[in-house]
């Protein structure tokens, strides 16, 4: 139960409670479409929106695994395919952000249930869901750092944060 409490706390800090890094909901709050698709001229860097699509893919996959819903588990040819954008419009950018917030919060609701002990059941990769949750938290933190860095590169990161 201690591991679950710790992981849920970390899960929350990835979305809406600042801890050692800013929460993604606040980071994305004022990102425009132009900023979301921007990439530096040099290097193989994904855009903010591509990173959010990648994070969303893994949230959807994790939810399907928790629910044992193999039929709705998203599939990708490879990891690079998880960064693909829908048609680039402001509405699609907003929908991607809202979908990400929805899946993150739905997972949190399920995981927070006191009776939810299925976190320790094995999944296809021969690891427990609790181990996958730990990996997802670290994965989110890593990519939130990338998004913050891309914001700073564009000069849109606030000098003084309110979060």
Automatic annotation (TrEMBL):
| Organism superkingdom | Bacteria
**Residues covered by the DinB-like domain:** 24-147
SUPFAM superfamilies according to UniProt: DinB/YfiT-like putative metalloenzymes
In terms of InterPro entries, this protein maps to:
DinB-like (IPR024775), DinB/YfiT-like (IPR034660)
Taken from the record, one Pfam family name reads DinB_2
Show the coiled coil region(s): none
Indicate what this protein is called per its UniProt record: DinB family protein
- Species name: Lysinibacillus irui
